[in-house]
Amino acid sequence: MKQEEFIIPSREHVLELLKEVRVPAHVRKHSIAVAKKALEIANKIKRAEINKNLIEIGALIHDIGRSKTHGFKHSLIGGKILRNMGYPKELALICERHILGGLDAEDAESVGLPRKDYLPQTLEEKIVCLADKHFTGHKEVTIQQRFNKWFKKYGRSKILLKSKKRIEDIQKEIEALM
Length: 178
Description:
The longest helix has 18 residues, at 25-42. The two termini are 17 Å apart. This protein has a single domain (11-175), classed as Hypothetical protein af1432. The chain is globular, with a radius of gyration of 15 Å. Helix content is 58%, strand content 2%. Helix 4 (74-84) runs antiparallel to helix 5 (89-97). A hairpin with a 2-residue loop joins strand 1 (135-136) and strand 2 (139-140). It is mostly helical.
C-alpha cells in the first residue's frame, strides 16, 4: 500500500484510548511488547510493501476487547469497539483476526463465535498475529513455547494443532519476504 487511504491514530492516542476503555495494565504492557516485536519483524521485510504505522497501531490496539472479556470473543468485541468509535476497518480486522493463528469458520463456531473465517489476510494482520504469538503476557517466548503452554493447559486439541500450523505457515511466508 503506497498511500494511506485511511487515517491511523497516533501511538499516544491509542495508548490513552486503552486506558479510557479500561484495558488492564498487564494487557497494555503485553500490547506494547507485541507492537515492538511486530515492528522488529516488519523492519526485516524487504520484498513487500507494508504499512508499518498500521502494524504498530494495530499491535497496540489488538487486545482492546480485553476491556470486556478475556475469552475468544475479545477479538470480535475489539473490532466492534473500534468500528463503533469510527476507527479504520483495517484496525478492527487486526483485532478480529489475531486470535490463535486465525480461525476458520468451523473453529470459530466451535469456540462460540459466529460461523465465518477469522484468518489473517493482509501482511499487516499476519505480522501482528505472529508477533502476538511470541508472547506470554509481556514475556517473549518462541512459537513452540507459546503453543506448549496452550497444549499443557488445553491439551493437543484439533483447533490448537491447526492454529500452530497456521502460525508456522505465516512465519514462513513472512521470512520469505525478508
